Amino acid sequence: MSFSAFYVAARPVGRQGIRTMATRRAFASLTTTNSPVTIHPSPSEIRAQRLSDRNLETAVRHVHKDGLVVVEDVIPHDQLDLLNTKMVQDARSLQARGEDGPFNYNLGNLQQDAPPVKDYFFPSIFTNPIATQITSSVLGPCPKWTFNSANSAMPPLPGSSPQRQPVHSDADFAHLEHPFALVVNAPLITMTPENGSTEVWLGTHTGPELSGTHAQEGAHGERASGRIRKELLEKRREDGMGPIQPVVKKGSIVIRDLRLWHAGMPNSSQDVRVMLAMIHFAPWYRNKMRLEFAEDIKPVLEKLEEDRKLGLQVPVDWVSNENAMGGYLDKGFGNSYDFDQEK
């Protein structure tokens, strides 16, 4: 890591199973704890696929306050394993493209889509009801799901050195000062500082001095857009609100405000670390992006909607399985997507 920090083990606090992974940073005589809140649902909540009112309140509060919250133990590991096996193979293929691949800021961080066919489409992952319960509570009923991809931290190739991303915001355009988009991240393996767990700067998603293009460098659409100005990073550190690089357990979901400062970190392990990213936009937000799925996923989504288990608007362009599998690895890098809304 490029910033001094150390980690202590997570411990349950109180009856609601809220855990924190405390991160401490010393500034002369000042010591500050700056950590994401992690919710550990009860067995009954996991069976019902729904958080209790108390845990939901906690999740919503920290999405607003910190710009990020973690919920553990909500995705079956066997489904993650099956998807991970395929996506690791795909990631190695994309890595071999080098400069022609869909990398984000550097070649060690790839943008890649999951195979958009039924064999790899698990509702517990892609339309996780607890994730949707949280995003609906923040953004309004039936958010629009219009982005479905992943970020993969790659082990360095022989002769190359691991690289980190600059601290940046994915909202690299003039955006609203209140929540309008939440990213649902799902790591396919446990994320650690060793394998490139994302660095996050809690609380940087809001406030006139932090959230906006005036705090950024690089024009929208450039490969390196959205970079946070160095003087703002230094001020944040001086105020005891520097970055953290938390451990996020396999089976967890992370809800992150699109505006939050963050950075992809080097992967010094030998394992590809894939983290899915689904973006839920507020139902009133006028973004025109659409998903592209194979036709065999359509009955899955229709059944979820019929059973009232979807809770999302899902604008999709349906294509044949052959076309879906033939083109899903040829998508753009992250900053080439337009998350803005129509004016």
Automatic annotation (TrEMBL):
Pfam families the record matches: PhyH
Organism per entry: Zalerion maritima
Coiled coil: none
Protein name per UniProt: Phytanoyl-CoA dioxygenase
Domain of life: Eukaryota
Gene3D superfamilies xref list: q2cbj1_9rhob like domain
